[in-house]
Amino acid sequence: MAVYHILVSHFPIALWLTAYLFIALRTFSDAQIIVSLEKSIWPLILLGSLAGAIAYIIGLQIYPWSAITQSPLGRNHIMLATWTLSYWTVMGILGFKLRRHLFEGAQKWIAFTLGSIGALVVVITGTLGGSLTGTPSLVTKSLSYVGWNVYTTFYIPTWMLAVFVLGAIVLVVLGFAGRRYKN
Ligand code: HEM
Question: Is the model's pTM score more than 0.85?
């Protein structure tokens, strides 16, 4: 199964990073050819999510759950894969819904920032996978410079959970307020 996971996982990586390349190009250029690439951003993202879901399911078949979750590196790879897949799926749905307005005015900077976060989480997921196969990249090493040793359990302070819940409530309230404003 590992060989199939390695084979399939490069499809979402390539598709999501191509989408990010197009987002970055569009943020900094209004050239006709770049504007026409814009239409392919959300299909690339959602195709990436489809391939990502297949890679995710195959990934879960490599080792028994009880074995892979014994390893902090294994848990970190699963955690980042879960973030990456859900993040890009939401990005694809939003990209589709807002497809005509993504790069209007200051909104392009939001698209660029969200895309950059997405690219970062894909890169980290991939490098953790590479570390699992015994081939850590410079990215794995760089993460240790910012204080995250990926071979140890990832902890966040408990108070961060309260911040997450609060953040989610604020976003839902803002969403409802925004809908009323539009009407
Ligand atoms: C979006 C989802 C995922 C992506 C993009 C991804 C990506 C990768 C990559 C790039 C590699 C290294 C390939 C290489 O060395 O060339 C890898 C290895 C690995 N991944 Fe994932 N992965 C994902 C989800 C998962 C999940 C959910 C699991 C569940 C446990 C998993 C388990 C593994 C394991 C065990 C390896 C090492 C395989 C070996 O030792 O040969 N992956 N992954």
Answer: yes
> Using a CB cutoff of 8 Å and minimum separation of 24, what contacts does 69-75 make?
72/150, 72/151, 72/152, 72/153, 72/154, 73/128, 73/131, 73/132, 73/150, 73/151, 74/132, 75/153, 75/154
Give the binding-site residues of ligand 1, using a 6 Å CB cut-off. Answer: 2, 5-6, 9, 12-13, 52, 55-56, 59-60, 62-63, 68, 77-78, 81, 84-85, 125-126, 129-130, 132-133, 135
All structural domains of the chain with their residue ranges? 2-152, 156-183
End-to-end CA distance of the chain: 51
The pLDDT value recorded for residue 178 is 84
103, 111 Cβ separation under 8 angstroms = yes
